[in-house]
Structures are given as C-alpha cells and as structure tokens.
Amino acid sequence: MDKLDFVEGIKILSSCYQKIISNDDISIWYEMLQDIESEVFKKTIIELCKERTYMPTIHDILDKTKTVKNNCYLSILEQMKKDGYFKLGVVPLSPEQEERNYDKSIRWIERGIIPRFLLEDMQKYINRGKKLNSKKHYQIENNR
Predict the structure, then answer these.
(1) DSSP 99-130
(2) Domains in the chain: boundaries
(3) Where are the alpha helices (DSSP H) in 1-144?
(4) Cα–Cα 20 to 30 A to 50, which of 11, 14, 30, 57?
C-alpha cells in the first residue's frame, strides 16, 4: 500500500478513537503494515472501528487483516463455484468431485497455502468484476 492510502486509514483510526497519532508512530506503523493491500487495510480499519471500543494495536490490525483477506477470498470462491469453475476438467466433473474441489480450496485459504494456479484464477475473477465500475486495480498477494 502506498503512504497516501495508509494515512487515510490512520485518519479513520484517529477520528474513530479521538486520538492524535504522532508522526513517529505513523512511521513505525507504516513500516510494519505497508505490505497490506490498500483495500484490505481500509476495510480492516473500518471493521475494527465498528467492533472495538479501544484503539487497536498493530497486532490487532495484522490479525484482522488475515480475516478480512480470507473473507474476500472466500467470496471469490463462492462466485467461482456459482460459475461452475470447480466442475471444470477434461470432462465435466461429478457434483461430488465439484464439492471436493471447492472444499479443498476453502481449506487452502483457511491454512494460508493457496496454490499459485488458484491465486491466478481468483485474480481473473477479480479483474473481470472490476472492469465494470472501478478505477482501482486489485491484486491478490502471491504467497510464494
């Protein structure tokens, strides 16, 4: 994420918790959190503000980021399932095999071990959906 997106998230935190965050803290937090995707970071901050009475720590943000990212990935998988992605093969797969493929993909996401081919296919779904109404390009983070 770039610094501008990061500062937007910090402004939200500062406003929600009525707390002034020092420039030193902002620099440290950016160093620790800069690898988070911009949209995931913003959604994480908003969800934390809605859920917590007290200002979150860096570790709270990192933990919540995992949940937000997994939820995003799971919603993409759901759309892929609706489109018949999991029954594709040399020949159409049985409903049982389709369900096994879907369940296996969910387990990969929950364990944080998403294979490259699945990340690439999920990215295609993101790109296809963003052509309609978004100026931003979303990129799935490659874990390898």
Answers:
(1) HHHHHHHHHHHHHT---HHHHHHHHHHHHHHH
(2) 3-130
(3) 3-16, 23-33, 38-51, 58-82, 95-111, 116-130
(4) 30
Q: 84-137: per-residue pLDDT in tens?
A: 999 888 888 999 999 999 999 999 999 989 999 999 999 888 887 654 444 444
Contacts for 56 with CB less than 8 Å, ≥ 6 apart: 13, 48, 64
The tokens of 75 are what? 């919603």
For 45, other C-beta atoms within 10 Å of its C-beta total 23
Interacting residues of 26 by C-beta distance below 8 A, sequence separation 6+: 7, 10
Three-class SS state of 84: coil
Type of residue numbered 24? D
Q: What is the pTM of this model?
A: 0.73
